[in-house]
Amino acid sequence: MIFNSFNFLFFLPVVFLLYWFVAKKNSKFQNIILLVSSYFFYACWDYRFLFLLIFSTLLDYITGIKMADAKSLTQKKFWFWLSIGINLGFLGVFKYYNFFATSFAELLSGFGLTSNFWSINVILPVGISFYTFHGLSYVIDIYNDKIKPEKDIVDYSVFVSFFPLLVAGPIERATHLLPQIQRERTFNYQKAVDGLRQILWGLFMKIVVADNCAIIVNEVFKNQENYNASSLVIAAIFFAFQIYGDFSGYSNIALGTARLFGVELLRNFAFPYFSRDIAEFWRRWHISLSTWFRDYLYIPLGGSKGGMWMQVRNTIIIFVVSGFWHGANWTFIIWGAINAFFILPLVVFKLNRTNTNSVAENSFFPSLKEFFQIILTFSITTIAWIFFRSPSVKLALLYIAKILNYDNYSFPEIDLKPFIFIFILIVVEWIQRKKHHGLELYKLNNIYIRWFIYLTLFLIIILFGANSDSFIYFQF
Asked: Distance between CA atoms of 200 and 206, rounded to whole angstroms?
């Protein structure tokens, strides 16, 4: 079941009614409804992998209690590393085994040696990278004595499997989400209405912007040899907005859905394409993952306290690991390395915290300097996205080589209609850049203008929405 499906259109109101009108103010009953609904939501994709989700949940739940009850540090470490090893082991087998086996076989063949590694023909469980990271952060925080273990199995299970965030995040922390699950929740009309607005905006981003861009992107990247350089440039730009509309659209729907149930999830996007440098971009893009790697990898490695060499080393590590987290392909690793390359000059010259405020903070239009900074940041980000989208490093390099050949430029050979939807997206988000999402309208009191906006967006979605099978980040 996915957010932009008719199944979800029926599923959500049913869960909402059960949650608020049957369970009413009984938080335990509400959590049971959320847990059963979340497992049903996940089982609709493939019920067989529901058992893997439940096993991972029970493993970390028991590990947390065992670590808290441990009589010695050795015993505590045993349970800690058991959980880490099993969680990463499952992730490694399902997501990375074939990559390592194939890469090692290719390495041996380069030396004239043959190998007979078995490959695994198995579907990647949807959301495994996300719910594994939920559990890892929980176990690590208990090990470091930052939190106490949760004794209520239902509450902890909801934390791991809450359906709005289950398959593509945001990656939540126990310190943020568990207290909301444990306390009594009351219906807040204003937050629920704003949640519906956020869902509507997320659907526009996904169905109109991302899915219309995807039609062009899929065609051009699949047959790049048949298109001129102008078309390749535009397809790269379209992919930048496809992945943004797809993933930020999902996050908006997830956050808006959670608010219908009185839960506030971590913000995952903060208008990243208005960033003035690559460091600011990564503070605004997939925020929950970036901060996860900062807290659980970058800082434990020494962060920026061990001198410039350590800071450079740790920066490269987290970007390469972040790339590998996205998928078992050298294209993702190189994508991460490219972003590290772009950000390192800012780190070395201590300019990575220059742009921490909102762009054009005291005016409607950006300054000329800010405008060119935004264009430059978007451009280098789009170059990196080419590796992210390409099926192989070789094809990505050929794609870029053709772009750099100025003799290949002529009028684009592709449909430019998605530019209209991208323009609407940019204008709305620029106006709303100091808010939490594109349709946050708390201060717009005119009911006629509000409903005009809602109906216009709804009609655009109905009339111009394109078909899509799933969200991009479901594969990660």
From this structure: 10
The dihedral formed by the CA atoms of 335, 337, 343 and 348, expressed in degrees to the nearest 10: 180
Q: Where are the domains positioned within the chain?
A: 6-186, 190-276+355-475
The CA distances from residue 145 to 67, 192, 194, 223, 297, in Å, are 10, 35, 36, 53, 17
Which positions are annotated as active-site residues? 326
**What value does the mean pLDDT take over residues 434-442?**
92
Q: What length is written for the chain?
A: 476
pLDDT digits (tens, 9 = 90+) for 326-381: 888 899 999 999 999 999 999 999 999 899 899 999 999 999 999 999 999 999 99
> Do 425 and 245 form a contact (C-beta atoms < 8 A)?
yes
Q: Taking the model in full, what pTM does it have?
A: 0.93
State whether the Cα torsion 287-290-154-181 is positive or negative: negative
List of residues 6+ apart from 171 with CB closer than 8 A: 130, 133, 134, 137, 165, 266, 288, 289, 292
Distance CA 438, CA 335 (A): 28
Find how far residue 224's CA is from the centre of its chain: 27
DSSP secondary structure string, 352-366?
TTS--S-TTTTSSSP
